[in-house]
Amino acid sequence: MQDEKIRRINELAKKSREEGLTPEELQEQQTLRAEYVASFRASLKAQLDNTLIVDADGNRVRPKPKAPLS
Q1: Which of 32, 38, 45, 26 is nearest to 6 (CA)?
Q2: What's the pTM value of the predicted model, to 2 decimals?
Q3: 3-state secondary structure of 69
Q4: Is the distance from CB of 45 to CB of 52 less than 8 angstroms?
Q5: Domain containing 44 — which CATH number?
Q6: Which of 19, 28, 41, 48 has a C-alpha 20 to 30 A away from that of 69?
Q7: Structural domain contains residue 25
Q8: CA 15 to chain centre
Q9: How many CB atoms lie within 10 A of CB 13?
């Protein structure tokens, strides 16, 4: 995610606490937050996909994916 979008999320959060947001700003905030969460999840998934665990025999194995939480 770009730094300018993160900066805008923070600006909207501050304005929301101080004076409130217009309906357009609320929509923008929700869209930016959803994009941030998707970016965070993709980054975490990529990191976990490249993680290896060393078992008791010294073998490097990839963890098996679990079913997504509902």
Answers
A1: 32
A2: 0.72
A3: coil
A4: no
A5: 1.10.287.540
A6: 28
A7: yes
A8: 22
A9: 13
How many domains is the chain built from? 1
Give the sign of the dihedral formed by CA 17, CA 22, CA 24, CA 30. positive
| Per-residue pLDDT tens digits of the chain, which is 70 residues long | 689 999 999 999 999 999 999 999 999 999 999 999 999 999 999 998 899 999 889 999 988 888 877 6
Q: How far apart are CA 53 and CA 66, in angstroms?
A: 15
Residue 67 within a domain: no
Residues spanned by the domain of 12: 3-61
Integer Cα distance of 56 and 1 in angstroms: 39
Q: How many CA atoms lie within 13 A of 24 on its CB side?
A: 0
